[in-house]
Amino acid sequence: MNISKELLKGTTKIMVLSVISDNELYGYQIIKLLKERSGNVLKMGEGTIYPILHFLESEKYLTSRWENIENGMKRKYYSLTPSGKKLLTQSLSEWKNFTDVVNTTLFNS
Amino acid sequence: MNISKELLKGTTKIMVLSVISDNELYGYQIIKLLKERSGNVLKMGEGTIYPILHFLESEKYLTSRWENIENGMKRKYYSLTPSGKKLLTQSLSEWKNFTDVVNTTLFNS
DNA sequence: TTACAATACCTTGTAAACCAATGTACTTAT
DNA sequence: ATAAGTACATTGGTTTACAAGGTATTGTAA
Question: pTM of the full predicted structure?
């Protein structure tokens, strides 16, 4: 089963905020987590997630810190700012409104 | 309450197919019907709906006929082809899958 | 009667979202 | 040694929706 690219538009940002709200996470991990949590349906590419993280950080919804791990690799960990938590709450309520409106429109005939 | 442009992406086509499935409709009427059915939330412009109708017709999901009404105006009525009915069924099931996956990802933490 | 709102069709240009592809660099498994 | 995995990043293309503009007619309010 596949999720069409078009339907996804707009929701990816919310899902990114949502997964970060639980734990401090790095980009590559978020991609794998979204895949896992969605039951292997969402296969976001790096070209999708990294720009979203950069945007959310530039808008102060996220902060980041670099961590050097033993083997020489570096990870950039993101967490929500207070402003990001507010955005998440607001986005979740928007998401609910949105699906309600669409469902009403689709099925109230 | 406003529905963000980004979330809407992809769903407008489905809603257009959905409203036409019940009755033969013309473009301007569809805009008003979507507004009405969504409880005054969806205010699709003509620049959104007309291109979708043209696309769906070019892909043979819709057929159209012109009707001259008394006062000199002309309306272009659209209805679903068998292929369009199939697309609608398929799109509705995609929509359901999509919201399920997003909700799982958002709320199963 | 003159102007505006509404009906009804249409197109063009722009911004945003996502993905595929590509690039770098290091590590681990075969 | 070669491929796959980890982990960061950017560029270019497609699609979606909207704002703004255009044509033409009818109905209404000033």
Answer: 0.88
